[in-house]
Amino acid sequence: MKKIMSMTLSIIVCVVSLNSVIVKGEENVLSKQPETGDYISFGTYNGDKIVWQVIGKDYYGDSLLWSENIVDYLAFDGSESGLVNQGTTEADKYGSNVFSNSNIKEWLNSNEKIVSYSTTKPTNDAVIEYVSFDDSLLASGYNYKEGFLYAFSSNELEALKSYDYTTKEVSNDYEDNYSFSIGTIKDAMNQYSQGRQVNDSSKVFLLSLEELSRFVTSNGLSIGKSVRNSNAMNFYWLRTPDGKGQKSVMTIDYVGNAYKTDSNFSYTGVVPAILVDLEQNPAFSGTGIEKDPYVLDLKYTDNLLISLSLKEKNEYLALVQEYKNEFEKSKSTFEKEKIVRNIEDRIMESLNPSEEKAIIKHYLEQAGVRLYRGLYNKEHLLTSTFDGTSLEFSDLDNLMKTEVTAIKKLVDYGIINGYQDGTYRPLEPVTRSEIAKIITLTIQAKNVKSTAYFHDVAKDKWYADYVEGIKNEGLIIGYPDGNFGPLNTITFDEMGTIIQRILINKNEFYPVSGKDIEETLLEDSFVGFWAKDNISLLLQHGLIDSSIVYDGNRTINRLEVAVIIEKLMRLIY
Predict the structure, then answer these.
(1) How confident is the model at residue 261, as a pLDDT?
(2) Which residues contact 216 (CB under 8 A, 6 or more apart)?
């Protein structure tokens, strides 16, 4: 295998040479690192083991898990009673759809025998009696429920990560445009576009509609639930609210249809989600299927730390302090990313990268430094197919050296090809089908067999699987008439929109904010009104040249595509 692509780093930090750290009697447990779709046994509730499923990673590279099965039936009960200037008649009576103030959030995050509420308990009118999990006890609300985490071990509790997220909550002027049934997840995603942003932090949470769509449906995972209580309907709560009234909460049924339900409706199920750092707590037994889930080694990192000598520990602490100092000096996420790459270089050069990674990450978090992505993750690295033979094109003589380099790099990585006559044809316009292939290979999207989703993309076409792949990744939508337009050319604005979606939605390791660098286009430039935010993001992260007049309506050619994709590769890899 050829060396993974690398880049020269401008920030140099000290590298300490340490002896390898080995836990006696253990194999390389990270060879069993769970992947998306695998199952993990973790914690118990009501005497039963909870089997979680890995559905993706969060902003920092921690693994996102959900229980897949409904664990209980409880009203959402987002009571706002007693909160000054926030309660409404509906919210006081029925509870509200504000998850950050909800009793269901407090129950999910409580490890107490009796849950202590920081918000006011729901009124009697806001609770409907329901049949409890063992089908023998009629219970009201949360009054008979111990905290969800009550039966979790101390090691399990420590393995949970706080999930810092921003969720949409409805505003008072949000118009209710749908009936009880909203339609599919896709329909709900298209319709739900308003609401205020609210920051929240939990260790156990409900998935939002966006997360359900992005992580579960995009990975082809089942959303059907194994429901123990046969008397209850197969609905479960989402964090995303719905409707104009503050009592309406969004739910999903077992086949993926979205509905809105009153927050005091107790026959809707709870499907919790959590974050776990699987690099610190790797799997060491099981096969990862639902009937034989992985079991986490919750003392893996602890055992590594115990095996360190005092000298080794001090060397790690000094190294991490150096990294922290560099982070604090950095003024942008781009500079911070360079430091992360430096840390990764060190890990990759060590004798035991799995152990080195766990130790360094532990001490970084102890020092208050959270990395923007998981370290040493081979899924995030492109491998060059370059075999030592430089492919020369006959029509690149008039190009700049940087442009030739960009073209050759994409050829080396198998992302783009030349023509049989030995030309590259840099000024040739690029079609939408060609972009589908280039993007699929650049981000290593999953190989999805075409289902002829678009009317004009036949399954036997060379581009069918690529088109299906970027459609499933949410990077391209198609036209309103159900066509894709595979032979249509693509404009700069359209290309910029695809790249923006990669940076925001499909890039788990380079955080983009659009706030670190201030750049503007030249005065005579043109950007479509629908693409302004997308192009601004690309401009601020150096993917578009601010020294030339930009024309978003112009068809992009093979040279320009190679240049922007090569910049994207350097940015995110």
Answers:
(1) 81
(2) 55, 66, 207, 223
End-to-end CA distance of the chain: 17
Taking the complete model, does pTM exceed 0.70, yes or no? no
In sequence order, what are the residues at sequence separation of 6 or more whose Cβ sits closer than 8 angstroms to the Cβ of residue 506?
443, 473, 474, 475
Of the candidates 244, 239, 309, the one whose C-alpha atom is nearest the C-alpha of residue 19 is 309
Q: What b/e string do you get for 273-301 counting C-beta neighbours within 10 Å, with b at 16 or more?
A: bbbbbbbbbbbbebebeeeebbebbbebb
Question: In this structure, what are the phi and psi dihedrals at residue 42, rounded to the nearest 5 degrees?
Answer: -160, 105
Please tell me the number of Cα atoms within 13 Å of 390 on its side-chain side.
7
d(CA 65, CA 473): 20
pLDDT score of 359:
92
189-235 pLDDT, tens digit per residue, is 766 655 556 677 899 999 988 788 878 887 778 887 765 555 555 78
Give the DSSP H/E element, type plus range, for residue 169: strand 163-169
Two tokens at 465? 């699987």
What's the CA gap between 457 and 450, in Å, rounded? 9
What tens digit of pLDDT does each residue of 461-501 get?
899 888 888 887 778 878 888 889 999 999 988 998 888 88
Plot region of 184 (φ>0 → left; ψ -120 to 50 → alpha; else → beta) = beta
Size of the chain, expressed as the number of residues it contains? 573
- In the block, tokens 């008039």 appear at 398
83 versus 568: the higher-pLDDT residue is 568
Q: Are strands 283-285 and 138-139 parallel, antiparallel or unpaired?
A: unpaired
> Which two tokens mark 536?
């601004």
User: What six digits make up the tokens of 262?
Assistant: 């009153």
Q: Give pLDDT, residue 73.
A: 80
**Nearest Cα to Cα of residue 393 among 415, 427, 417:** 417
Residue ranges per structural domain of the chain: 39-276, 300-380, 401-572
Any idea what DSSP says for residue 104? H
Strand partners, 39: 53
Q: Could you tell me the two tokens for 190?
A: 């298209």
Burial class from Cβ neighbours inside 10 Å (0-12, 13-18, 19+) for residue 184 reads middle
